[in-house]
Predict the 3D structure of the following.
Amino acid sequence: MQQYIAQRLLLMIPTLFGVALFIFLLMRVLPGDIVEIRFTSEGGFVSEEMIQIERARLGLDQPLPVQFIKWMYGLIGQPSVDAQFPFIHLQAPDLGVSMWTGRPITEEIAIRFQLSLQVAIMGTLLSILIAIPLGTLAAMYQDTWIDYSVRIFSVGGLAIPSFWLGILIILFLLNTFNWIPPFIFTPIWEDPGKNLTQLIWPTLAIGYSYSAIATRMMRSSMLEVLRDDYVRTARAKGLLEHVTVVRHVLPNAMLPVITVVGLEFAFLLGGLVVTEQVFNLNGIGKLFVEAINHRDYTLTQALVLLVAVTFIFVNFVVDLLYAAFDPRIKYE
């Protein structure tokens, strides 16, 4: 297991390097220039000399290989020598400064990452709490009114976008309780009650929509496992039905569901642009759109790397969970 973990961690390095190189080149070939966009938004006459001075200040006048090397050098962390102990260590990675706002990118992301991470965790937990029981019941009572009800419920989640469901929730709360989404985000460690009041509604919209896929996957996986020979053998030995399902069926049926839930969690961190707009949430998705619109190279590159790291880490955790749910899987 230790060797497998070490190999997976080492494989992350070339993957992240490839993502960094791809997004760096992609941002340079997109039409539009951040310097021209900034001066155009401010209005007034701008000379070519002023544009070149600003490009030099941002480092855009340098060759592309030099820009990429400097960016990667900041990501890796600058080596420094401890004065008291003769050891060389790496400083914290420097994501650079936003070309649009002029603020450090770590600050721009940190403000919004806590919000997006909490919504992603709450939405994923809610989808799991919905999908596993409903998918199991639908499989256990196949072709009954319970199965049909669960299938209608899941199809509704697939058909209704989360942002449209969010609009319906806001309209209901506005007409019934005169409630509108607050304009200022309150962290959970400052005021848990106010924080949950703000995020429980987008969590319901997101959790219901994303539970639909997991519910259908859980149902189909349960039906497949219930027809296996070892399940019939367990029943023939006289095991109770709930013991057979919990001990033998669920662990094997959970494997494809874990993959779906893991991918959904990774997507929730940066893919809720419209839902964040509906509930007035200033998260990573909204920051993504603003960075691309402003042609903010450094901020967009940092956000893409953040999403890539999230997907790679989630896939790594999912692989480890496979071994926990299925003892036949061993990483050696």
Q: What stands out?
A: The beta strands are 79-81, 88-90. The longest strand covers residues 79-81. The chain has two domains: 14-90, 105-325.
